[in-house]
Design brief:
The protein is mostly helical. It contains 9 helices and 2 strands. A hairpin with a 7-residue loop joins strand 1 and strand 2. InterPro entries: Phage_phiKZ_Orf197.
């Protein structure tokens, strides 16, 4: 089970942390050759990290078994080849899909397929050839995976979900006032004065909002794990204060509420999952 967890952790790290924005753009480039080269590079990163994690696991456990090495190498090669096929198919599907809901589904299905293709061959080969497994640091690795899913992966997921409903970074307000004016020798007249104002909220530097969301979910996960669920209210109060002025914009208030509730639900889910580990 240790090696399986290491392979899953390697997958998430390669798919998110060790994938630059430039590589992501290249993977979605209209030119087929550039796109395929980028996918090959991405798959190569997966292969290297997976092999590295497995090798480190063997060094720590001191279980250099030739048959085990062969089986794990087969699993890694199989997952690498299928990863290329899945990512290539995902590009064509992504071009045809316009619905935001379907993009969310595509993201979830993509990750589910990758994990399934790691798990099934691993279990099949280990059971078929009765290769001895290693059980070290399983709880720690499982917690790291849950923490990573709760932060980095969840941020990508929320970005896809909330992308289309994100409000503009400015609020325009129009105020109409009726004022009585009396000019010399004339009856008082009511005039309507229209005042327009615009308040801008520049975008946060270097995706700071994403990091705030990560910290928020980590704290929620910690509160749930320690049984101090009421501590979540403190996080929500602090977060609301920083955005108080923007709540005058109904669109932003709805966007903020949806994003906060989804982030909180994700944090709660992974908090309770961590308690099961």
């Amino acid at each position: 089970m240790t090696y399986l967890l290491l392979l899953i952790l390697a997958h998430f790290l390669a798919d998110f942390t060790f994938q630059s924005d430039q590589l992501i753009q290249e993977r979605h480039h209209p030119d087929k050759k550039r796109r395929e080269n980028a996918i090959v590079k991405h798959v190569g990163i997966h292969f290297i990290i997976s092999v590295g994690f497995v090798f480190i696991g063997m060094l720590i456990s001191q279980s250099m078994n030739l048959l085990l090495v062969l089986m794990l190498l087969i699993v890694i090669i199989l997952t690498s080849v299928t990863h290329y096929a899945i990512d290539s198919a995902k590009y064509y599907l992504d071009q045809k899909i316009t619905s935001q809901k379907m993009k969310v589904v595509l993201f979830l299905v993509d990750q589910a397929l990758h994990i399934t293709i790691i798990v099934l061959p691993f279990i099949y080969l280990i059971e078929k050839y009765s290769v001895g497994q290693v059980y070290i640091f399983e709880d720690v690795i499982a917690l790291i995976i849950l923490l990573y899913l709760n932060t980095v992966v969840a941020s990508h997921f929320l970005h896809i979900v909330l992308n289309k409903i994100a409000p503009p970074n400015s609020i325009e307000q129009t105020i109409e006032e009726e004022i009585d004016r009396k000019e010399d020798g004339q009856e008082p007249q009511i005039h309507t004065v229209i005042t327009k104002s615009k308040t801008s909220y520049p975008e946060s530097h270097h995706k700071i909002g994403r990091y705030i969301g990560m910290l928020e979910r980590v704290l929620i996960m910690m509160f749930v794990y320690s049984g101090q669920v009421m501590g979540i209210t403190i996080i929500l109060a602090i977060k609301s204060i920083t955005r108080f002025k923007q709540f005058d914009d109904k669109r932003f208030a709805e966007y903020y509420l949806i994003g906060t509730l989804m982030s909180m639900i994700i944090g709660l889910i992974f908090g309770y999952l961590a308690r099961l580990v």
